[in-house]
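pasting input
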Amino acid sequence: MQEREILHPLWVRVCHWVHAVCIVLLILTGFQMRFSDALGMFAFGKAVRVHNFSGFLVLFTLLALGGYYGLKGLFTRVYVPTREDINKIPLYANYYFVRYFFGDPHPFTPKPDDKFNSLQKVTYFMLMFILLPLQILTGLFLWDPRTFSSAISALGGIKVVDGIHLILAYSFFAFVIAHIYLATLGHTFIAHFKAMILGYED
Amino acid sequence: MKYVAIFVMFLFWGLSTVALDREVCFECHGSADILSMTEEERLEMVVPSEGAEEWPQGLSTLHVDPDRFSRSVHGDFDCLDCHSDISEVPHPQRLGRVDCGMCHEEVAEGYEESGHPALCYQCHNPHYARPFMKVRAGERSSVCLTCHDAGELSEEGYIHSKHIHTGKISCTVCHTLDSESRLVLRLGPEEVAKAVKGKEAIDLNGDGFVDFSELRGLLQGLREAGFKPTLEAEVSVSEPSHKFGINEKWEDCLRCHSPKGLLQRNPILVSPSRRGTVLLETEPKVVTSLSDFYPVGSDRFSYDDLRELFSQREEGKFNEVVSRIGWKWLDILGYIFVIGALAFVALHGGLRLLTLKWRRRHHGRGG
């Protein structure tokens, strides 16, 4: 029997699913807090506690994920887009928005040490290593505004910090919607989901 | 100086209290030297009180700064108005306890019911008492925290553990049973008083209320005059009450963290001015313009904002609504993001469904 190539190692899959659960909880509890009078999913106090706990878990799993790829020496190769990646964006955009509907095969074959196409690389790098850290940082400031009061003042006040946190939250919500949908674009409807559970694609 | 004080005391020795006004009292108590005297020296200045009850030490001391006393809310009183057991100088060594309830009857009754053991002056210094609304939330809470340990409280519950709560909300908001709480907006720094003539400089139309444009005008004027005005928000009780206990209605987080909570009530603007502190009600909308105050969930773009925006025909008013909405515009941007993502899924998914048969027939690819 041919040994299957592991695309997503166990550690990465665990981090991904912990992230997934936490991000969903963060979105739900975040909305509960912002629309406190209109939604009834959680009591306000519970929403705050779940939000804070999930936020810290995301911080730790992000460090664990980044640390894993860093130790393996794969971080740059997997996540950091090159000039070539930037140049190839139109090719993949054309695939997703046009060629896909003609039934063309995906122009990219993922490998364990190079598993994201240019569009994914740019998106994930931006989201996970620029926007998510910014979101975590602003979340930390909002978690304890008194301890971080000087940083909050330097940014222009708590409303500025909350504004950044809020707009990033909406961005992550929009990303999750698109991400779940795009995950169904594998060679079967559930191929990518299966890969993120078992580690390999059929 | 202490010898002068002793001399003055001898000067009054034997005189009955024909005119015992506060200047007489300040001859001894108005100088800090009284604190550096020995007990024996002080005993020579009074009539020894053998066996009289000694009251616990509190914030009131033998020394009262005459200037600070004059500026306090009790500054128009004479000492004997409260220390009524003095009839002559030298007075007895041990005096009776001042009954604050003579004036503050309701507060004293409520306090007695609360079962707190401390005497009034152990928490408050009546000689330097300031107008109630001038005392900040943090200062009010610090009175409670002289006995109640902040560390222990933070272990008891989440609300206490959040420093922002103890700094911006006075303990009495949640821990008095009959108090009315309001959002208080404090205009600072104190120097802006030089540029604010009085009430009429803030409430321009004289309706006893500061609306959004009046407040914006005030801040703008202060900036143009070279000041850096700040507006600090906090939640405090608006009338003194000592009926302490746990006010269960404040256990509901949504009293602050909801647009339908505390922020629906008119906040009180506290402004320094050349003629003293000005207190005026203002509209909840002004809170939107504060960059350093935001109880999570208290404010977001709403249908009312949209309606107000579309109902404004005058350009000036329209711009004012746009400016007042402030950070809430981010909700609109956020809705666009989310709707955009959903629209992408719907469009792409729709096209996918429409082309499914074709793709299967020509390439054997589904999904």
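fyi The mean pLDDT of chain A is 92.
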